[in-house]
Amino acid sequence: MAITSERLRQTFSEGGAQEIYREIKATGGFLDFARRYVFDKDYRVARSALWGLTKATDEELSELQVTLNELIDQAMQTANSSVRRLTLNIIERLRVGELRSGMRLILEEDDLRTDFLDFCFEHMVSIEEFPGIQTLCMKLAYRMCSFYPELMDELKRTLEAMEIEYYKPAVKCLRKRILSGKYR
Question: Is the pLDDT confidence value at 108 over 70?
Answer without folding.
Answer: no
